[in-house]
Amino acid sequence: MLIVASALIFLVLPFVDVFNEFLTAVFMATGLYTFIEKVVAPLVARMAAAVLQYFFGAHTGVSGQSLVLHAGGRRLTVYINWNCVGWQSLSLLAFTLFTGLRGPCTRVSKALCVAIGVQGTILLNLARVVLVILVALFWGYLRSLIFHNYAGTLMLLIWLVAFWNYSFGMFSKGFRAKRVVHRHFSGLSLSPEKCSGFSLPFNVFE
Q1: pTM of this prediction?
Q2: How far apart are CA 158 and CA 141, in angstroms?
């Protein structure tokens, strides 16, 4: 199973890169990138600086989209480009949510799935930015560029596979529990005439 999943991930990898390039062209043509550049990128820079400072003991300074890092006797200045904050991964997540949540799921389940997916993707993007900075600091620009271009996309695909595997597992457990409750009450008469005053806190037959 793991080998099959790995093969599928590497098979999808080029299509994800093409999808990202297409989204980048659309955002540049429509001017939507300015919001990411002025608002999102500086926020990501501050979040990355906080993680590097509190979890890795680095001395950091942030000015707009620029981040200065001192750690291990090394100094590095990083510029967080608007196209590198991970907004494409949120677009890809939205596409998978649109296709994956079309089944008979409850609104609560859908909302929970969206919340977990968005929060997980944001944390993944933050971790990717931090790892790229650390690789650049200790192993140089070329290795960090390779990590940025390939490992970041690979991390995203692994996250999406794990996320949907977990989500579908939870959905299937919910469906099985619903069928059990339905079988349990199917032999009972729950009509208002015979069960006046008796009510359930939820509708098991929706």
Answers
A1: 0.75
A2: 25
Tell me if 136 sits within 8 A of 144, measured CB to CB: yes
pLDDT tens by residue, 4-51: 555 555 566 666 667 778 888 888 888 888 999 999 999 999 999 999
Token pair 């590097």: residue = 52
| The two structure tokens encoding residue 52 | 């590097």
Q: What is the dihedral of CA 159, 164, 170, 176, to 10 degrees?
A: -160
CA 160 to chain centre: 7
> In the chain, which residue ranges form alpha helices assigned H by DSSP?
2-30, 33-35, 41-56, 87-100, 107-139, 141-146, 152-186
Closest CA to 159 of 118, 109, 131: 118
CA distance readout (Å), 64 to 21, 40, 160, 173, 186? 25, 10, 31, 46, 62
Per-domain residue ranges of the chain: 2-173
Contacts of 77 (CB under 8 A, 6+ apart): 66, 67, 68, 69
- Residue-wise burial string across 26-48, b where 16 or more C-beta atoms lie within 10 A, e elsewhere: ebeeeeebeebbeebbbebbebb
Q: Give, in degrees to the nearest 5, the angle at Cα 79 between 75 and 84.
A: 130
Contact 90, 118 (CB under 8 A): yes
